[in-house]
Design goal:
There is one protein chain. By secondary structure, this protein is α/β, with parallel strands linked by helices. It has 7 helices and 17 strands. It folds into 2 domains: 181 residues, HUPs (Rossmann fold); 122 residues, Rossmann fold (3-Layer(aba) Sandwich). A 7-stranded parallel sheet has the order 7-11-6-1-4-5-12, with helices on both faces. It has a 5-stranded parallel sheet with strand order 14-13-15-16-17. Strands 8-9-10 form a 3-stranded antiparallel sheet, covered by helices on one side. A hairpin with a 2-residue loop joins strand 8 and strand 9. The longest helix is centred in the last third of the chain and has 18 residues. The protein is globular, with a radius of gyration of 21 Å.
Length: 329
């Protein structure tokens, strides 16, 4: 029997969509290995609130580690607790999201558990009792299939690459107090600053409106903000490297090889030519819409839909049409 452990990240006091994707995949893999899926949630006192809903996504057992030293993410504390639970449970596989926290945490787990790590995975299956995963390579121009021969198999999953599907399980909840000594930690969080109130993290957004040098200057960004607002509350703003280097937008919004890798359901590339570095960060989006006045721009080679035209004319009309459609619904 091969049980599977899913580490579910809490953000702003709740378990988000990326964590539910991890839970869903863990449950599917557990069935293929003849075991069950367990969830691990870490946080400060009260972290167990609301975890009962994880049963709807396949969690047969939910373990919640509550401690003042876990109220904020610190790599040493989280890694030590997760490694301990992985070893005690004898899990066949451990899954976590390739979020900002996951990208920091996963390599530490691999080193402590002395196992290989499959990162930024976009497909998972069980073949002849072993885990086989697929991940983009060469800046997304190809995909590698990897069969993991390790125990546990350690996998970080690209956010938005998997659906969060409901599959009811027992969902028993057990709260424990990890042995964490905050005074012994070499790092600690002293302050958190949000980029802007209500901003959506570009790496986890399901819809992204992204701008490039074709926007001319930072003062024109209000056109993208208006389109974002018209599309809905859970839409993120993105930017190309050239825009960030010019100081028009913060680095947190940069999409590409030297920025963030995204896999939204909808990606709107506005005034972005489509350099290979940018394509590396967004070409796995489900649907890509490009707006550019250059019909030969490389972005159109990967776009599902394209508009060749002046973005300063297209954006206001597109925004108005979306507002009209949403008002009618």
């Amino acid at each position: 029997m091969g049980n599977v452990l899913a580490f579910l990240e809490r953000r702003d006091g709740r378990i988000g969509g990326a964590a539910l994707e991890v839970m869903s995949v863990a449950q599917r893999v557990a069935i293929g290995l003849g075991g069950s899926a367990h969830a691990l949630v870490l946080g400060g006192p009260g972290a167990s609130a609301g975890v009962g809903e994880l049963a709807r996504f396949g969690a047969a057992k939910v373990e919640v580690g509550e401690h003042d030293g876990l109220a904020e993410y610190t790599p040493e504390a989280y890694a030590s607790v997760l490694v301990e639970r992985a070893r005690q449970g004898g899990y066949a596989a451990v899954f976590l999201s390739a979020s900002a926290v996951g990208r920091d945490l996963a390599p530490r787990l691999a080193a402590l558990l002395d196992v290989p790590l499959a990162t930024d995975v976009t497909a998972v299956e069980v073949v002849d009792g072993r885990l086989r995963v697929e991940r983009p390579v060469y800046s997304g121009k190809a995909f590698a299939q990897i069969e993991i021969d390790a125990s546990p198999a350690l996998v970080s999953m690209r956010p938005n690459a998997f659906p969060a599907t409901e599959s009811a399980a027992a969902g028993t909840v057990a709260v424990f107090t990890p042995a964490v000594d905050p005074a012994a930690l070499r790092t600690r969080v002293v302050e958190r600053k949000l980029a802007s109130r209500g901003a959506v993290d570009v790496s986890e957004a399901t819809t992204i409106v992204s701008g490039g040098r074709g926007m001319k200057d930072a003062a024109q960004w209000h056109l993208l903000e208006a389109l974002r607002d018209a599309l809905g509350p859970d839409v993120a703003l993105g930017a190309s490297r050239a825009v960030v280097d010019a100081g028009w937008r913060p680095h947190a919004e940069q999409v590409g090889q030297t920025g963030k890798t995204v896999a939204p359901k909808l990606y709107l590339a506005v005034g972005i030519s489509g350099a290979i570095q940018h394509l590396a960060g967004m070409r796995t989006a489900k649907t890509i819409v490009a707006i550019n006045r250059d019909a030969d721009a490389p972005i159109f080679q990967v776009a599902d839909y394209g508009i060749v035209g002046d973005l300063f004319e297209v954006l206001p009309r597109l925004t108005a049409e979306i507002k009209s459609l949403r008002a009618g619904s």
